[in-house]
Design a protein that fits this description.
It is a single chain. The chain is α/β, with parallel strands linked by helices. Helices cover 29% and strands 32% of the residues. It has five helices and ten strands. A hairpin with a 2-residue loop joins strand 7 (122-131) and strand 8. The longest helix is centred in the middle third of the chain and has 18 residues, at 69-86. The termini are far apart.
Amino acid sequence: MTRLLALDTSAESCSAALWCNGEVTGTCEHAPRQQSRRLMPMIDELLASSGVTLSSLDAIAYGHGPGSFTGIRIAAGTAQGLAWGIERPLLGISTLETLALQAYLSSGAELVLPALDARMGELYSALYRVREGRPEVLLDERVHPPEELILPPLNDGDVLHGIGSGWKLAQQLPKAVRSRACEVEADREPDASAMVRLAATRLEAGNFKAIAYAIPVYLRDQVTTR
């Protein structure tokens, strides 16, 4: 039986989720600036309620970014510490890819543009086409001003599903982007319950890092207080 733990603190939420042989159990709470205090108790409560011990896990996954610089470091440090303690593989998962899967799981969206507010007048964004629950990258992750988002050539019938806090700046996006968006969920944040599904696929494929390489993905060098 494959067992995975995923955790994310890349935005204002704090979430953890378990994958037990295809079944997902997760917990998420709004905890701005409280993630470092809430994450471990949340993990302990999730494991206890599921009857799973830390040592029985096959791997640990975490949201490696982009997102809040402080939050990403909390998740990476916690995941690395847990993985080191039980000598298990570590999987870093994109928060933008996680949002793309969340859109697919909640509404069946196939063409998804996740965007997160990067502060300093910029967005973190990417573009995915989700096929059978597997996001395929159409535009790589990058940080940029909203007005500089340019879509690749798309089919005439393609419509966008926008998700993430970056869509609160929708009026600053180019008209060509806004006109494609059929649905927008600007209040959604990355959730470990979707992240753990991506992690299970990576683990099955053997796509994971050695414990020493829990590296946050910031997409830019400047750090702002989050």
